[in-house]
């Protein structure tokens, strides 16, 4: 499966904890991330991750483009709901595209843990996409 990992700055400690806790599961999949998130996770876990641009510099849009092109199966995006983001339109566009294409999307650590367990149990598929 192809998994995208993204976190806003105040959520980066959470995504690092998540990546450490679920490292063995994540290592079985193809991982993508926005720039800074990817760099931090690679540094902390040694996971192999394909890095896009940093979120505010177009990374969210690159991930959104992958969603639209059926190149992702799961998006974990730990959003900071309490801090205004300069690239809020990009954030909204990515979330919207996940809904347009029925891509599983976790926006907080609890839902992310459920998704990663489902991923490990082979319960995530792109059947919705393939039927379009
Ligand atoms: O801003 C982001 C998501 O909107 C994340 O980008 P970085 O991983 O580059 O910090």
TrEMBL record:
Q: Where does substrate bind?
A: 8, 12, 34-37, 54-55, 87
Where on the tree of life does the source sit, at the highest rank?
Answer: Bacteria
PROSITE patterns with a match to the protein in the record: METHYLGLYOXAL_SYNTH, MGS
Concerning Pfam families, the annotation shows: MGS
Single GO term (MF): methylglyoxal synthase activity
Query: Could you tell me which InterPro entries the record lists for this protein?
Result: Methylgl_synth, Methylglyoxal_synth_AS, MGS-like_dom, MGS-like_dom_sf
Under Enzyme Commission nomenclature, its number is 4.2.3.3
> What SMART domains does its record include?
MGS
Where in the numbering of this chain does the MGS-like domain appear?
Answer: 1-132
Q: Which residues form the active site?
A: 60
Which family does the record assign?
Belongs to the methylglyoxal synthase family.
Q: What is this protein for, i.e. what is its function?
A: Catalyzes the formation of methylglyoxal from dihydroxyacetone phosphate.
Q: Which NCBIfam families match?
A: MGSA, PRK05234.1
- Its name, as the record gives it, is Methylglyoxal synthase
Q: State the organism of origin.
A: Paracholeplasma manati
Q: Which taxonomic lineage does the organism of this UniProt entry have? A: Bacteria, Bacillati, Mycoplasmatota, Mollicutes, Acholeplasmatales
């Amino acid at each position: 499966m192809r998994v995208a990992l993204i976190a806003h700055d105040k959520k980066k400690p959470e995504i690092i904890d998540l990546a450490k806790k679920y490292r063995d599961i994540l290592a079985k999949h193809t991982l993508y991330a926005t720039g800074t998130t990817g760099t931090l996770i690679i540094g902390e876990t040694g996971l192999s991750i394909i890095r896009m641009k940093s979120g505010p510099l177009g990374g969210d849009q690159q991930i959104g483009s992958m969603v639209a092109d059926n190149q992702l199966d799961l998006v974990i995006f730990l959003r900071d709901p309490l801090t205004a983001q300069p690239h809020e339109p990009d954030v909204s566009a990515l979330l919207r595209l996940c809904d347009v294409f029925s891509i599983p999307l976790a926006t907080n650590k609890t839902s992310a843990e459920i998704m990663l367990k489902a991923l490990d149990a082979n319960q995530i598929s792109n059947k919705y996409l393939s039927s379009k």
